[in-house]
Specification:
alpha+beta, 2 domains, three-stranded antiparallel sheet, 4 helices, rod-shaped, disordered C terminus, binds zinc ion
């Protein structure tokens, strides 16, 4: 952009010099050529300036998008650091809230598949399962026998 403006200014100087040295109409065609050159160079400079402004606006927008993405990633990392992978007696896995990181929230688990997709889905209890309402999967947290044991207070005592 600056190159074009400098070139336009130099052409203007040439045109002014021609006017100064003009002793009649003999230099008219040279002068006209010089003025036309100045006009073309100024037009180029303006076009270049406009393109530069567009480029700058696009870059500013890109920076804003990246800052937003970065803030989202940082926010996600902060949230997910409160959880650790937990294995239920059935072998099923879920992310459980770490001790001391509750922030006044009740104990809960997050769906592993959803966390892998950077989605926070709190598993809802559903009998001996924990259900993910996002990916519609059931995580078996207790074996059927353990559930009977808990419900009836004794081993298969129903
Ligand atoms: Zn899920």
């Amino acid at each position: 952009m600056y190159t074009e403006i400098v070139a336009a200014i130099q052409s203007t100087k040439t045109a002014i010099d021609l006017v100064k040295s003009a002793n009649g109409l003999s230099n008219y065609s040279e002068l006209l050529t010089a003025v036309t050159t100045v006009q073309i160079k100024l037009t180029d400079a303006i076009a270049s300036e406009l393109a530069s402004q567009e480029k700058q606006a696009a870059l500013t927008e890109r920076v804003r998008e990246l800052e937003k993405q970065l803030a989202e990633i940082e926010g996600w990392n902060t949230q997910i650091q409160r959880y650790s992978l937990f294995q239920f007696p059935t072998g099923a896995l879920a992310y459980g809230l770490k001790q001391g990181r509750e922030n006044e929230e009740p104990m809960h688990y997050l769906c592993v598949s959803c966390v892998d997709k950077k989605q926070k889905s709190t598993l809802q209890p559903h009998g001996r399962f924990l259900k993910c309402t996002v990916c519609k999967i059931d995580i078996t947290t207790q074996s059927a026998q353990a559930l009977n044991l808990n419900r009836n207070g004794g081993w298969m005592s129903r």
